[in-house]
Specification:
about 550 residues; globular; two-stranded parallel ribbon; mainly alpha; 18 helices; two-stranded antiparallel sheet; 2 domains
């Protein structure tokens, strides 16, 4: 069986369950949007959730997996499975100790800070929710580590299925929320508790799979293990680079709350003796959250799926110093990312309003919430192809043990992003935060691509340019058909039936997909052929 087929089959497994997870995630967000809308309560939850999520990305699926997978692969290839498993136990032991310490420090801080310092009302709920949700860090980082081990052993099902469980728990919490209190402030605690419990459940469901693979945890406090020192050394710049990016994401939410006028407060604030009107209204962080969730759909189903599947492959070729096949795998991944990312960007831009109308607009999520969310999606969607491509590019650097280059470029782009943030919000409001993110990602992917060609033993072949050209033409045809079809339906005022809302979304979407498929066939797109063949295979 060819390596190309194995790669696309792995992508398919990850994509299928990631797709299921995203569908459940949309259902979760629809329920939460209906109950909580885009007010101060959901603003507080989104900020509180992003803090444990930041640690998950840093120490779970981010820095640890990026540093661990290449070394773990090398142990399996050169030292045998038994020594590799012992090494994994060393890392697991250290991870448990570090995560336990982080959770204890965090819980103490979130409890003490509001009692020592004067905290505005809109931030008090953030601290209360953090006390409940922060222990989620411990469980979800262990889940991400177990997923890294299984992915290296070419088992992709359970790591891809785990987020499905998380969304099921979250949905149950949201459904039960109205029965737990009469106010939104009380109901939100049910969602917070379900988030915490989802981490525990995800750990539990991984145990049988690990046992089936004959992987058993035994405490190994070997702090002098040479490979542990190697991973910690490599994790340093990766943590810094990811921290810069993830803290920037968190800062976006903090800016959205801090620069938003409180619902029952003044519309201005004082700075350096000046009276300045707030550039945004309450709900800005909620709008960013709901918009980002829609952007994460194609990113998770295709971008992260490809990066997750190709990373062990990159690492294996790097260990063997097989740069020819490394380059081939890289080019295939980039072509696929562009093939999915470019039309996904255009599709979300074209269909943003009917998507929001169908998924979110009901009850507490009113016309203003829908308009603001659609506006933010417009700016976020510009960079979907770049968000997807970055995951593959960064893993290419990591697999050849270059962890500093992505960090340096990431830090520069985050600085640019922050400057754009505090500039754009005054005339684009929360849309300015989304546009800054998109521009920053595009700048980052351009710089990293140039460096990759100059420094590393990787060449972006002409076939990538040809494939991208075909994708752009097919995407343009798709957008044109989508626009004409969408014009056949009247603009929704939010009062239409679910049937009409669905028809207004899926009719142009179906026509657009058909146009993209036909154009891809006419242009003889290799990526489209791969997708068709994989969908027709039974295994």
């Amino acid at each position: 069986m060819s390596e190309s087929h194995n790669l696309f089959r792995s992508v398919r497994v990850i994509s299928v369950y990631t797709f299921l997870s995203r569908i459940l995630g949309l259902a979760r967000d629809m329920i939460c949007a209906s109950i909580f809308g885009t007010g101060m309560v959901w603003d507080a939850f989104t900020v509180a959730f992003k803090i444990p999520n930041l640690f998950r990305r840093l120490f779970g699926e981010g820095a640890l997996s990026a540093a661990f997978i290449p070394v773990f692969t090398e142990h399996i290839e050169k030292r045998g499975r038994e020594e590799a498993m012992d090494f994994a136990n060393v890392i697991a032991t250290v991870l448990i100790i570090i995560l336990g310490g982080i959770v204890l420090i965090g819980e103490g801080s979130f409890f003490v800070i509001p009692k020592i310092f004067h905290v505005q009302e809109k931030w008090q709920l953030v601290y209360k929710l953090l006390i409940i949700m922060f222990p989620y860090v411990f469980f979800i980082c262990l889940v991400a580590f177990m997923g890294s081990v299984l992915n290296t052993l070419n088992h992709f099902f359970m790591p891809a299925f785990a987020p499905v469980v998380m969304n099921i728990c979250w949905i149950l919490g949201a459904v039960l929320a109205p029965y737990t209190g009469k106010t939104l402030e009380k109901m939100i605690y049910a969602v917070a508790i379900s988030t915490f419990l989802s981490g525990l459940v995800q750990v539990i469901i991984h145990v049988p799979v690990l046992r089936k693979k004959k992987l058993y945890y035994h405490p190994r406090p070997k702090f002098s293990h040479p490979s542990l020192k190697l991973i910690l050394t490599r994790m340093g710049p990766i943590v810094f680079g990811l921290a810069v990016v993830q803290i920037n994401v968190l800062v976006d939410s903090i800016i959205a709350v801090g620069f938003a006028a409180p619902p029952n407060g003044p519309s201005y604030f004082s700075f350096a003796g000046m009276t300045i009107n707030y550039p945004m209204k309450a709900g800005a962080a909620s709008v960013l959250y709901y918009s980002d969730r829609l952007i994460q759909f194609p990113l998770g189903v295709f971008g992260i799926a490809m990066a997750t599947a190709v990373f062990p492959l990159f690492s294996t070729h790097a260990v063997r110093e097989d740069w020819s096949n490394f380059s081939i795998a890289f080019n295939k991944a980039i072509k696929f990312i562009l093939f999915i990312g470019i039309p996904a960007s255009l599709a979300l831009i074209m269909l943003r309003e009917p998507i929001v109308d169908l998924l979110y607009r009901r009850n507490q999520f009113n016309a203003e919430s829908a308009y603001r969310t659609s506006n933010v999606i417009l700016f976020y969607a510009i960079g979907i192809w770049a968000y997807c491509g970055l995951h593959v590019l960064i893993r290419a650097f990591y697999s050849v043990k270059d962890t500093t280059t992505p960090v340096k470029i990431g830090a520069i782009c985050v600085g640019i992003d922050f400057i754009m943030n505090i500039t754009f919000i005054w005339f684009l409001r929360e849309g300015g935060l989304a546009l800054s993110t998109a521009i920053s990602a595009i700048i980052q992917i351009i710089i990293l691509t140039i460096i990759l060609q100059k420094r590393l033993r990787i060449k972006i072949e002409n076939e990538v340019i040809v494939s991208m050209f075909k994708t752009v033409i097919a995407s343009a045809a798709m957008a044109l058909v989508c626009w004409f079809t969408l014009r056949m339906f009247p603009v929704s005022d939010g009062s239409g039936s679910l049937y009409f809302k669905g028809l207004r979304l899926f009719a142009p979407m179906t026509a657009a997909c058909a146009a993209f498929a036909v154009t891809s066939i006419v242009l003889k797109s290799e990526e489209f052929s791969h997708l068709v063949k994989l969908s027709l295979r039974k295994s």
